[in-house]
């Protein structure tokens, strides 16, 4: 909304998209492709206690924190979710998300299924998208093709995937990752549609209808 | 969903889109443009008691009914909405909408604001889109440019438009008709996003997860 007298189809406030799905479904690939074709989408930057690797920049790749700083962020409820992984903490700073949205920009967060549900508790106004494999067979094939897992590990990953897929009910949208470019198109369509939701227009409309004419 | 083992991104059942908005906003123009660029969208065919004009075909332009037939359709609740206009009845046959959706096709109904709200009562699972002018000034300009109305009539049309715009709250989406091709793109995005709603995938998913693997 750039003037009092009309609308543009983009509202003042951005939208948080949370992209999730089972391990192996291709979240990272879809997210990278989306980054290339959607220039005005901001990617959520995580906070972490792990050390920066060569070339990693503060505020671009991660917000690097000491363990004390991280624990104090948890304490002050400054993280939308957090988890410990191989001795390090990782989390999503609320403030970065909030200030991006307030600046009218959309932001995307790519995260595993449990983390997404934690975000939903703290930020229910987000748009939660679940990435599905074309079929369970296809998902198994993708995990096998990676070649990093033993047969037992594959079976256990597949069981985890089934449990995760059952959590789809907590999400808003389901997107099939049959082809990366189609998955991207669907996410872009969802973003465009969400910007057209009537809720975004009611406050402006109210002001507009009250104006003397 | 064409096989038991996977998804396509289009569900078995079509979606009813109801496109509405104040008089003068350009519903007809947007609908015609949409018809040209979306080949697989079916347009709702109305029933009417008025006589066919030259070239009009039964089941294509209208379903032509006698007054007795029309009144009996009302009686049997076979119309999603109906209205009388200049001595003739017009209405939306429920059966045509239902059979199109059951065949997996999307259907669009272009209708004025009060009619759309009646449809919503009988068919709440539809997707209700409200077409907005870029501004009230712009709407007034469009009505003036048509040149068919006196100053009094214009004032009364504008008051009606204000009252109609206030009904936006009963709709799902608001689309600004700043440029016809942009309005079309937004409607197509909404249609694509609605097909990705998780509700459409839960039943298939359930069946799929119960399969022995």
UniProtKB/TrEMBL annotation, chains A, B:
<dbReference type="InterPro" id="IPR008144">
    <property type="entry name" value="Guanylate_kin-like_dom"/>
</dbReference>
<feature type="binding site">
    <location>
        <begin position="21"/>
        <end position="28"/>
    </location>
    <ligand>
        <name>ATP</name>
    </ligand>
</feature>
<keyword id="KW-0418">Kinase</keyword>
<keyword id="KW-0547">Nucleotide-binding</keyword>
<dbReference type="InterPro" id="IPR008145">
    <property type="entry name" value="GK/Ca_channel_bsu"/>
</dbReference>
<comment type="function">
    <text>Essential for recycling GMP and indirectly, cGMP.</text>
</comment>
<keyword id="KW-0963">Cytoplasm</keyword>
<dbReference type="Pfam" id="PF00625">
    <property type="entry name" value="Guanylate_kin"/>
</dbReference>
<dbReference type="InterPro" id="IPR020590">
    <property type="entry name" value="Guanylate_kinase_CS"/>
</dbReference>
<dbReference type="GO" id="GO:0005524">
    <property type="term" value="F:ATP binding"/>
</dbReference>
<dbReference type="GO" id="GO:0004385">
    <property type="term" value="F:GMP kinase activity"/>
</dbReference>
<protein>
    <recommendedName>
        <fullName>Guanylate kinase</fullName>
        <ecNumber>2.7.4.8</ecNumber>
    </recommendedName>
</protein>
<dbReference type="GO" id="GO:0005829">
    <property type="term" value="C:cytosol"/>
</dbReference>
<comment type="similarity">
    <text>Belongs to the guanylate kinase family.</text>
</comment>
<keyword id="KW-0808">Transferase</keyword>
<dbReference type="InterPro" id="IPR017665">
    <property type="entry name" value="Guanylate_kinase"/>
</dbReference>
<feature type="domain" description="Guanylate kinase-like">
    <location>
        <begin position="14"/>
        <end position="192"/>
    </location>
</feature>
<dbReference type="InterPro" id="IPR027417">
    <property type="entry name" value="P-loop_NTPase"/>
</dbReference>
<keyword id="KW-0067">ATP-binding</keyword>
């Amino acid at each position: 909304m750039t003037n009092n007298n009309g609308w543009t189809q983009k509202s003042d406030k951005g939208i948080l998209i949370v992209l999730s799905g089972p391990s192996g479904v291709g979240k990272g690939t879809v997210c990278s492709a989306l980054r290339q074709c959607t220039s005005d989408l901001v990617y959520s930057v995580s906070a972490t206690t792990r050390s920066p690797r060569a070339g990693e920049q503060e505020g671009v790749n991660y917000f690097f924190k000491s363990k004390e700083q991280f624990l104090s962020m948890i304490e002050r409820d400054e993280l939308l979710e957090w988890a410990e992984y191989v001795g390090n903490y990782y989390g999503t700073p609320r403030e970065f998300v909030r200030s991006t949205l307030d600046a009218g920009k959309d932001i995307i967060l790519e995260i595993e299924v449990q983390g997404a549900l934690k975000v939903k508790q703290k930020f229910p106004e987000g748009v939660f998208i679940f990435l599905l494999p074309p079929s369970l067979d296809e998902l198994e094939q993708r995990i096998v093709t990676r070649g990093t897992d033993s047969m037992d590990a594959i079976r256990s990953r597949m069981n985890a995937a089934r449990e995760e897929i059952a959590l789809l009910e907590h999400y808003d949208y389901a997107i099939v990752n049959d082809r990366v470019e189609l998955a991207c198109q669907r996410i872009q369509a969802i973003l465009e549609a969400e910007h057209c939701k009537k809720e975004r227009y009611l406050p402006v409309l109210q002001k507009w209808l009250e104006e003397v004419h």
